Amino acid sequence: MKLLFLSRFLLLFFTATTLIHAQQKEITLQDIWSGTFRTQGLDVLRSLDNGKEYSVLNYDRSNNASTIDVYEYKSGEKVRTLINSQQLSNIEYIISYEFSDDEKKLLISTQLQQIYRRSTLGTYYVYDLESKELTRVSEEKIQEPTFSKDGTRIAYGLNNDLFIKDLTSGTTQQIT
Q: What residues form DSSP beta bridges with 57?
């Protein structure tokens, strides 16, 4: 009984002293909004087909720009920048991106709007990495765009219907 009482007392004592000394600096709104408490890390990394590199979406607060950068696994060093939102007139910032299977095109999402718990509408663009050409998928906000296996078409949802856009000709066909 005495041992139980003593162990509880010691636990309470150490907890109280730790809490007293744990927070001696005041937290200000400036600290919160300036990013003082933001973690440094990767949001999502996408491994490239060559097995030696990966890509990451980075946001630079000082320039208010998004970049998709490629890094080397071996050294962790940045190898190149695939795309910079400041160089694209239609895109203020990039929210997310997907590669086509052949990694020659990027599907870029911007201006997402939540409509249900897990559903969003957004403005999407296809960026051709070889020609550096940017193409808007649809003039309206769309759902769940996906590249075809060969990367020449994009399927997406709009107003509860399915559409396919041919990236070569630019034509769109409603399939439902």
A: 68
